[in-house]
Amino acid sequence: MVITGIDEVTDATFAAEVLGADGPVLVDFTADWCPPCRMLAPVLTEVAREEAGRLRIVQLNVDTNPETQAAYGVLSMPTLVVFRGGEPVKTMVGARAKAKLLRELADVL
């Protein structure tokens, strides 16, 4: 499930796209079979548009990219991990409303 306006990363591109990024990057660990992931998709699309320039949002399909999922111990979908300077700085598990997500992101933006 590709979310409009959000780039997809893979095991092969994760280091360059996420760990090597200048600013904060929110990675949406997702799966096509995951109903909460589908619920979260429009929220992420809105946040990506509103926070463009301050936060990059990318998605990683865990079914086709198991190495990155395993490397960060992601067991539940959706899991949102914010990376800054190549390190995970915040992890959130489960779908959430836009207002709640923005509140949770306030300290990392």
Automatic annotation (TrEMBL):
What family does the entry list?
A: Belongs to the thioredoxin family.
Please provide the record's keywords in A-Z order.
Disulfide bond, Electron transport, Redox-active center, Transport
Q: Cross-referenced PROSITE patterns, in alphabetical order?
A: THIOREDOXIN_1, THIOREDOXIN_2
Quote the NCBIfam families the UniProt record gives: thioredoxin
The gene is trxA
The molecule here is called Thioredoxin
Q: Per its UniProt record, what InterPro entries does this chain match?
A: Thioredoxin (IPR005746), Thioredoxin-like_sf (IPR036249), Thioredoxin_CS (IPR017937), Thioredoxin_domain (IPR013766)
The record's listing under Pfam families reads: Thioredoxin (PF00085)
Report the superkingdom from the record. Bacteria
| Residue ranges constituting the Thioredoxin domain according to the UniProt record | 1-109
